[in-house]
Amino acid sequence: MTPSCTAALEVCALVLKTRGLGEVIFPSFTHVSTVLPFVQHGFKPVFVDIQPESRCIDTSLVAEALSTETRGVVAVNYGGWSPDYELLRQLCDANDLLLIEDNAHGMGALRAEKPLGSFGDMAACSFERQKNISCQEGGALIVNNPKLQSAVQELTDLGTNKSAFLAGEAVHYQWVGSGAKLPFTEWQAAVLLPQLESLDAITSARKSAWNHYHRAFENHAVEGPANLEGSNGHVYYLKLKDQTERDAFIAYMAGQGIETPFHYYPQHLSTAGQAYGRFVGSDQYTSEAGTQLVRLPLFQGITTELQDEVIAAVNQFFNS
Ligand SMILES: Cc1ncc(COP(=O)(O)O)c(C=O)c1O
């Protein structure tokens, strides 16, 4: 367990660093936390575009972004959807790269009946307050590649040989290298555990709420997300015509007492993203997602009555 998904991604950056510094490939449409830990540990971000349906990294563009300096790929399971992990795995294996999943949104979601979080060599999860299950702040690092277990153990044991020492394999319990302190308290665990145990029921309630929005918007003037297999209903968004319409929509909904936040500003256009990284290929869908998407309220316990109020307000906006 970790204090956040950001902290789990920091461990991924430290593990990657043990293979040497270089470049890491990211989708540009993501949270700063996906990229920041890698840049802080000396990696150069290389951004590529997303795929228009899943809004996840467009795997077909990753090959073009590869260089002799590439060390890894970080894929984001945006909204509980997933990129083409089969192709990503082939690319990473063929080029000796680590595949890391930013699974902040993906708890309870599936791809071909396998849980998201099980595709990368490592996967970082979030239990922050807006996630499907939450303990206000919290995260986890899933280590799927057994070859990374001991490096992760050492790094998460504050850079000590604690586990080797406890196994009787080291004479002294001592500091041996880089590491991090990753507090996750029993208070947080006590809040999270019952939700983890009820993950299927929570995911199914979330998907029902997602489907309720989708029935209202699938044949509407405004475009909603594609109804892709396996999602955990983490995000329901609408795609407005342009930024002007999006801003007018957010203001209108706020006037009705409904918060409809936009999502990520493209990282390759951000001040730091431009200073530290580069974008490969063309930006067909990233800026569009950054300027046109808005998220509708969706949380554990949302009622259909509340959703109907949101739907009515959206309809009023488009009819006015
Ligand atoms: C894609 C993505 N990655 C990482 C994070 C950071 O998660 P945390 O707040 O648990 O560090 C977020 C936050 O929402 C996110 O959207």
From TrEMBL:
Residues carrying N6-(pyridoxal phosphate)lysine: 131
Active site, UniProt feature: 131
Pfam families xref list: DegT_DnrJ_EryC1
Transmembrane spans: none
Family to which the UniProt record says this protein belongs: Belongs to the DegT/DnrJ/EryC1 family.
Protein name in UniProt: dTDP-4-amino-4,6-dideoxygalactose transaminase
Record-linked PANTHER family: DTDP-4-AMINO-4,6-DIDEOXYGALACTOSE TRANSAMINASE (PTHR30244:SF34), TRANSAMINASE (PTHR30244)
